[in-house]
Amino acid sequence: MRWCSRAVTLTIIAIAMNNKEYISDEQTLDNAGIRVTAVRLLVWRQVRHGFSDAFSLADLEAALPTVDRSTLFRTLSTFTEAHLLHEIDDGTGSQKYCVCSARDTHHCEGHVHLTCIRCHRTYCLTDVRIPSVPLPEGWASTETEYVVKGICPACNREK
Amino acid sequence: MRWCSRAVTLTIIAIAMNNKEYISDEQTLDNAGIRVTAVRLLVWRQVRHGFSDAFSLADLEAALPTVDRSTLFRTLSTFTEAHLLHEIDDGTGSQKYCVCSARDTHHCEGHVHLTCIRCHRTYCLTDVRIPSVPLPEGWASTETEYVVKGICPACNREK
DNA sequence: CTGTTTTCTGCAACCGAGTTGCAAAAAGAT
DNA sequence: ATCTTTTTGCAACTCGGTTGCAGAAAACAG
Question: Can you tell me the distance from the alpha carbon of A31 to that of A76, in angstroms, rounded to the nearest whole number?
Fold first, then answer.
């Protein structure tokens, strides 16, 4: 793990603030090879702790009205490239993002997604791998999207 | 099968034109409960005979430049509602459509789609059904999207 | 600490796909 | 032939995503 003087400084600040999360988030970005800025820290803390499920650029915009949309967009791209997030195409027409679980950098690929057609929330079934199917001769597969559309338990309950 | 006087008239015209396809397409729309108009016939013949694979609104627009985009859009919606077409969400960001095979009205649901990341064409594997996965307690599934992204044989060959 | 270089951010504008309201045109009914 | 209903074309608009550019912030060098 890399450990630079700026991070040490932040650690001291964080201890002073008695805020352990602050250190941890800073480290996460740093470990991912991303330069830590105020905006990025803000965005990361929002997506890490502020959303219970997959979120869209619009969700993030609503949660952080002080930050410009294009900046949020670019930040999401940066995070995605650094494998902090993964993109989900749930067929709602808007790109969704989801935090990659810490333990496994590449867990993001190949799992099933659930989309609720009522509340439009999308969830990851990180532990359910996509079953494979036979492909025609000559096709080379690179990636597979498996999205189950339906009604989530919460929407189901409220009838 | 319904058979109205207008259709008979068109049959006569078609025989005069020695064009069997013409009758057949007209019948298809009529059977689907869709009023037959010049534009709809034009669109149907294009999507039925003019595309080898799934197509987008933009593809249709390019193929039929004389027809307005909004009309094409509404026509596609009409056809989809009448189960002449089915919609495919292949994750390219643009809605695709594909002709439903004649023998089975509901065949459209539940099969696998292939999308080429080079040429952006999308194909139906109508005979490969989507394998199911276990869902969490409380979820009610209505539909499942299974899209394999990769390189199609044609793109693979041209290296 | 100060000046220089590099990166990031906000603004504005743009793009493409999808969508809608409305009036004219076409089709169907009487 | 006339009236009613449906369809079509036009224009405009929405919404999500995206880019160019100039100023702000961060990293770097002295």
Answer: 17
Q: Is the CB of B62 under 7 A from strand C?
A: no
Domain containing residue B48: CATH number = 1.10.10.10
Give per-residue burial for B52-90: e unless 16+ CB within 10 Å, then b.
eebbbbebbeebbeebeeeebeebbebbbebebbbebbb
**How confident is the model over A113-122, as pLDDT tens digits?**
999 988 888 9
Helices (H), A18-84: 20-31, 38-45, 57-63, 69-81
Is residue A138 assigned to a domain? no
B39: left (phi over 0), alpha (psi -120 to 50) or beta: alpha
Compute the distance between CA of residue B97 and CA of residue A127 in angstroms, rounded to an integer: 32
Please give the protein residue whose CA is closest to the C1' of the nucleotide D10. B68
Cα→Cα distances B134→A58, A89, A117, B118, Å: 31, 20, 19, 33
Average pLDDT, chain B: 82
Under an 8 A CB cutoff, do B130 and A133 touch? yes
Pairing of strands A96-99, A122-129: unpaired
A63: confidence class by pLDDT, cuts 50, 70, 90: very high
Distance from CA of B116 to the nearest CA of A (A): 9
pTM of the model: 0.79
Which strand (E) or helix (H) includes residue B80? helix B69-81
CA angle B90, A150, B107 (to 5 degrees): 55
Checking DSSP bridges between strand A140-151 and strand A96-99, what pairing results, if any? unpaired
Q: Which strand D bases fall within 7 angstroms of a protein CB?
A: 6-12, 15-20, 25-27
Give the domain extent around B86. Answer: 19-133+143-157
B74 is a domain residue: yes
- Which helix (H) or strand (E) segment holds residue A85: the answer is strand A85-88
